[in-house]
UniProtKB/TrEMBL annotation:
<comment type="function">
    <text>Catalyzes the interconversion of 2-phosphoglycerate and 3-phosphoglycerate.</text>
</comment>
<feature type="binding site">
    <location>
        <position position="64"/>
    </location>
    <ligand>
        <name>substrate</name>
    </ligand>
</feature>
<feature type="binding site">
    <location>
        <begin position="91"/>
        <end position="94"/>
    </location>
    <ligand>
        <name>substrate</name>
    </ligand>
</feature>
<feature type="site" description="Transition state stabilizer">
    <location>
        <position position="185"/>
    </location>
</feature>
<comment type="similarity">
    <text>Belongs to the phosphoglycerate mutase family. BPG-dependent PGAM subfamily.</text>
</comment>
<feature type="binding site">
    <location>
        <position position="102"/>
    </location>
    <ligand>
        <name>substrate</name>
    </ligand>
</feature>
<dbReference type="InterPro" id="IPR005952">
    <property type="entry name" value="Phosphogly_mut1"/>
</dbReference>
<feature type="binding site">
    <location>
        <begin position="12"/>
        <end position="19"/>
    </location>
    <ligand>
        <name>substrate</name>
    </ligand>
</feature>
<feature type="binding site">
    <location>
        <begin position="25"/>
        <end position="26"/>
    </location>
    <ligand>
        <name>substrate</name>
    </ligand>
</feature>
<feature type="binding site">
    <location>
        <begin position="186"/>
        <end position="187"/>
    </location>
    <ligand>
        <name>substrate</name>
    </ligand>
</feature>
<dbReference type="InterPro" id="IPR013078">
    <property type="entry name" value="His_Pase_superF_clade-1"/>
</dbReference>
<dbReference type="Pfam" id="PF00300">
    <property type="entry name" value="His_Phos_1"/>
</dbReference>
<feature type="active site" description="Proton donor/acceptor">
    <location>
        <position position="91"/>
    </location>
</feature>
<dbReference type="InterPro" id="IPR029033">
    <property type="entry name" value="His_PPase_superfam"/>
</dbReference>
<dbReference type="InterPro" id="IPR001345">
    <property type="entry name" value="PG/BPGM_mutase_AS"/>
</dbReference>
<keyword id="KW-0312">Gluconeogenesis</keyword>
<comment type="pathway">
    <text>Carbohydrate degradation; glycolysis; pyruvate from D-glyceraldehyde 3-phosphate: step 3/5.</text>
</comment>
Length: 256
């Protein structure tokens, strides 16, 4: 077993097409915007400047996380490291909200319902019908899930599917002394941060993860953060980015 602290870097993908358009995205496999690609490359520069060079990469199976990781590793000159991809790192499945405009949903259903669907711990949006153009039923990358493929998820569902992956795939890499990069999504990373920092079901509603800025955790032998909430490698940009995510769908909210 390697010496502690274990080194874990979490990276939310850079701005995607649908972040820019302010649409609920979930499992829809949208690409990065030009800004998102720049954010990703800069994320890698921040890692290199800090001397935090990943030894292994874990990503979701969605291209916005995969491309972000590729661009970040290119700027950190670490393109050669081994990679594991798994659907359990995917964004939360947003059910029938996938493809819908956030501001329109807020106007149609009201602020309270909008926030319940967006940030409550245990209330999923209505399920997405398999016939929808935004459904993933029938997508070959999820063939192994069979009928178990999600049609909607709340954050609790994400915690439930993510933690076994954390325990069996990520923790062994950390314990082997590897610097681990996890490139994933706003809500799958909120699920992981909730677990690491022991954040309550209520308080996690107020946690938002900005795009493209590495969040660095040092973990002790019990896999508890040495510093609560970790450390963003660019704290100012992270605070602004998190505020922009929080404001999405509000009257003043900039798309980000
Ligand atoms: O649409 C989504 O999939 C997520 C992340 O972009 O949105 P939200 O921050 O509203 O959970």
């Amino acid at each position: 077993m390697a010496e502690t602290p274990y080194k874990l870097v979490l990276l939310r993908h850079g701005q995607s097409d649908w972040n820019e358009k302010n649409l609920f995205t979930g499992w829809v496999d949208v690409p990065l915007t030009a800004k998102g690609r720049e954010e990703a490359a800069r994320g890698g520069e921040l890692l290199a400047a800090e001397g935090l060079l990943p030894d292994v990469l874990h990503t979701s199976v969605l291209k916005r996380a995969i491309t972000t990781a590729n661009l970040a590793l290119e700027s950190a000159d670490r393109q050669w490291i081994p990679v594991k991809r798994d659907w359990r790192l995917n964004e939360r499945h947003y059910g029938a909200l996938q493809g819908k405009d956030k501001a329109q949903i807020r106007d149609e259903f009201g602020e309270e319902q909008f926030m319940v669907w967006r940030r409550s711990y245990d209330t999923p949006p209505p399920a997405l019908d398999d016939s929808s153009e935004f459904s993933q039923a029938g997508d070959p990358r999820y063939a192994g899930l069979g009928e178990g493929i999600p049609r909607t998820e709340c954050l609790q569902d994400v915690v439930t599917r993510l933690l076994p992956y954390w325990e069996t795939e990520i923790v062994p890499d950390l314990k082997a002394g590897k610097t681990v990069l996890v490139a994933a999504h706003g809500n799958s990373l909120r699920a992981l941060v909730k677990h690491l920092d022991g954040i309550s079901d209520e308080d996690i509603a107020g946690v938002n993860i900005p795009t493209g800025i590495p969040l660095y955790y040092e973990l002790d032998e019990h896999l508890k953060p040495v510093t609560a909430n970790g450390r963003y490698l660019d704290p100012e940009a992270a605070a602004a980015g998190a505020a922009a995510v929080a404001a999405q769908g509000s009257a003043q909210g900039p798309a980000q």
